[in-house]
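User: Okay, second chain of the day. Same drill as before: sequence in, C-alpha cells out.
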Amino acid sequence: MFVAIRENGEYISLVEKWERSDLLELRNHETFHCPACQSKVQLKAGLKKTHHFAHVKGAECTIKTEPESEYHLEGKRQLYHWLQAQGYDVKLEPFLPEISQRPDLLVTTQTKRFAIEYQCSQIDYPLFKKRSDSYRNEGIMPIWILGAKWFKRMSAYAVRLSPFQWLFATSFNQPIQPSILYYCPDTSTFVKLSNLQPFTTGEAFCSIHFYKEKVMSFSSLLAPTNLEYAFQHLWGRKKQKWRLSYSMYPSNHLATFLTALYQNRIPPAHLPAEAGLPVPSGYWFHTPSMIWQMWILLDLLLLLRKGDTFFFSKVMEVISKRIATKDIMVRQLPLVFHTRYSLAVEEYLQVLVATGKLKKLTKTKYEKIGAFEIPTNLDEAYKMDNILLASVGKHEEDGLVQHNIGRDLSSDFIQKT
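Assistant: Same drill. C-alpha cells below.
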C-alpha cells in the first residue's frame, strides 16, 4: 500500500516519486502504522520494487488484502495521477471506517462517489460481492478494473473469460449491456470489452476497444460504447465447429444433456438451428446457449403442436427446474443490476417470434405456429443455421429484436467537481 500513518498522526503517501535516500532516513527515525488496523507497517524502499508500505509478517489487518505486485502498485499509481490530472477529487487508499473498507481510489464528484478497485490477483466471489455490496450500501458506486494480464484475446472479436473475469462485468445501473474494464500500466492503456456474447463457458464474442490513458477521460471510459458489431457470421462458423466437436466444450452436466438427446433420438451434431442463438442478455447464462435453449425446446416447445399456446411463466418453470438440477447454470454477476436471466429467456422467445416459430398473443402468452426441424445431416444443419442466423441479423437491423442500448452517460452520469 502507498499510505500509512506517521508517529505524529499525519498521513504519509508514497504515490509521488520519493528519493530513496529520503525514505531510508524516514525509516531510520520513524515508525508507521496501517490506517485501518493501526498495526505497525514496514516502509519498503528497495532498489527493484516501487516504494510502498507492507504489514509486518504475522500481522492480521481488519481488511483482507492480497499482496500487491509491482504491476499492481504501478497501475494504482497511474490511475491516481490519471484522475487527478482531470481535476477530480481523488483519494488514494482511504480507510472508510463505516464499512471497514479501503478502496484503491475514492473519487468524489458533485453527485456521486466512486470506489475504484484495481484488481490484479484472483479473489473469490463471496469477498468480491461483499466488497461491492458494502460500497453500494453506502451510496458509493464500485468500479472494478482488472489488470490487463488477465486479458486473453482469441481473435479480433473473441476473448477467453473465466468465471472470475465475468465478475467484473458492470452495467453502471444503466439499461445497457455490461462492459469489462482492464488497465495495463506497462503501456498506459485501457481495454474495454462491450457487447458481450458468450458462446461457451469460457469463450465470448465482444467488441474490443483500446484507449490510451492520456486521451481517455473517466466519464468517457464509463459511458456506453455506441458501436456494436454483429457477430452472426462468426457465431455461425463457431456453431459449425461445435456441432463437430461438442465434446470439447464440456460442462458439469453434459452427460445429462446427451442422455436427454439420445432419448429423443437427436444426435448432438443435429440440434435444430433454433438451439444456440445469440441474444443480447445471454451473458446471464454460464451454460452455453446451445444447451440452455435446447432444454427449452426439449422440455416444452418440441412437445407442443402447432396452435398450442403457453405462458412465459411455463418457460421460466422449465428453466427453474433445470437450474435446480444444475443442468443449467446462471452466471454470478454482482455488478449487473438492471436485468436478470429471465430477460435472456424473454429475448430468446422474441427471436423465435421474429423468425416465425412462435406468435406473441399477449404480453405473456405465446402460440406455437412453426415447426422446429431436426436436420438429418451436417450439411443440412449448417444450411439451417446460416438461414436462421441471417434472419436474426435482419430482424435486429429492423429493430424487431430489441437490444439494451443506453443513453450517453458522459454528460449526466458523472459530473466533475
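The chain has eleven helices and 17 strands.

User: Thanks, on to the next one.
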